[in-house]
Amino acid sequence: MAEKKKAVIVGGGTSKFGVRQAHLLDMVQEAMKACSDDIPALKPMDIDGLIIATTMAGRHSSALNTAPLVVHRLGLSPTSICIRLDTLCAGSNSAIIVAKGLIESGISEVVLVTGAEKVYMPQRWETNFTQLAVNDHDWDSAMGLGVPPPFFAMIAKMHMKRYGTTKEQMAHISVTNYNYGTDSPNAHFGGRSLTMEEALNARIIADPFGLYDCCPLSDGASAVIIASEERAKELTDRPLVYLRGTGQHATHSMSSGWPGDTLAEWPHLKKAREVAFKNAKLTPKDIDVAQTHDCFTISEVIELEELGFCKKGEGGAFAASGAINMGGEIPTNTDGGLLVYGHPFGASGARQAIEILKQLQGRALHQVKDASFGLTHNLSGTCAQHTVVVYGKEPVK
Amino acid sequence: MAELQKVETVGIPALEGKYIGEMDIWPFECQEFNRLYPFFDNLRAGKFTTTKCKKCGHIGFPPGVICTKCWSDELEWVELPQRAKVVTLTETQAGAPAGFPSPLILAWLTFGEKSPLKHLLGRIVNCKEGELKEGDEVQFVVFDVPSHPIEVKKETKVCDRVFYAFEPVKK
Predict the structure, then answer these.
(1) Residue A241 in 3-state DSSP?
(2) Are residues A114 and A262 in the same domain?
(3) Are A94 and A387 spatial neighbours (Cβ–Cβ below 8 Å)?
(4) Model confidence pLDDT, tens digit, residues A332-371
(5) Assembly ipTM
(6) Measured between CB atoms, does A371 come within 8 Å of chain B?
(7) Confidence (pTM)
(8) Which among A203, A235, A267 is the end of a domain?
């Protein structure tokens, strides 16, 4: 058997995230412009595959078959793959897994992975109807489970009860992520800062969450280029960053199928992590920098545990010890994460990938010294599916 | 230069109260749309049910057309426990989905060792904010929800609907 090709992330960029006065396709064009600025040698004809990750395009932009729209607006003419992909919050991270497979198998050479959401349209309140359709509509949603704060609030209460996690520890995460994200020009809350006092005194969204424990719903788009090692060398002079290992694990769609002993244990994330690290031939100790799915502060706490960066139950104390800060054991969400950069569902995974790429190439805004290995993680739905991708400056040997 | 013509508006005028809220918050429950319609008929009879596999005995939730353990399609309807215990709960102050009241009380429920349904997220009704506590017992309750019309040949049929939630058991 011929040796497998190696998949590389070449470059990428995002649109401004936030409540945008822009159409979905405007933001896809903005993300492509940013990606093009990052890879000056890249031309439309270089791209032979397209994956657009979006959940809301059909409902909020009347764009159900989104891929041809993106082809036309970006001047592409793909020959190997041209698809829309939807795994909600993990959309573009799932697309990166697919792109890796396409490159390694030789089906594609240069794949554009883009993710985009326009949520606040046509009318702001409609988002609250749409939310019911991204959960298990006929069962959990009909119980009133729409936007995620209530579900994750119960997860937080359970974690506080079982492991002694505190509101202060959770506030430490939002303050850290604000410190990281404040100077990201395209972040939803770029330019803003947050103190512990502000975090702890914020208005309650769903007990125990205050406003800053919750990420925003954002409009936005992101774009990255995944290519074969050979093509990547033609497109960039920067050090190559390889996709080493991936894992995606799904167990259920609604509450009755929850796999943990309680809401505070996420065995499905642990499983996704094990698969990704096995493929990457690495362990959590090897990872220098991580972008995890901090949709809520408690999510980052539990992710630090289940991803293997600290012991189960110790995520809150680990984060508050400074482990997630620059110079700590595992600087996490170094571009501000979902809490500050924002969360246009399908666009988030690629945004994380861009930050890891920059970290491993030594050109991040908040640079982790000598970072060699990085990790991205998304959860999606009511914490029903976990997606993990491991990157490195060297390929798997 | 072409003149702007005054013609009758085509499409759905969003701001004149005629906009279709296409995001229905309740399931399509009638036989025309759903092979699981007995679940909803059973709700009307006050029963909380699901499907049990006649081949392997697995009881899944939600009910289905095939067994999720062995993929057999030989299923029968069985009743589930109607009482559950509150493990943890949350009262949502902001951002409850449109159509649901605020504060919206949601609880993580367990149904006991012997129940085939281990846990479920349940909305708590007939309960004031601050009343419900961890460890409290709640019971299944059924209520009417808005009906919807469907076209059957040239006729329009109205599908009446129900749904369920949980309420505190009076001590």
Answers:
(1) strand
(2) no
(3) yes
(4) 999 999 999 999 999 999 999 999 999 999 999 999 999 9
(5) 0.91
(6) no
(7) 0.95
(8) A235
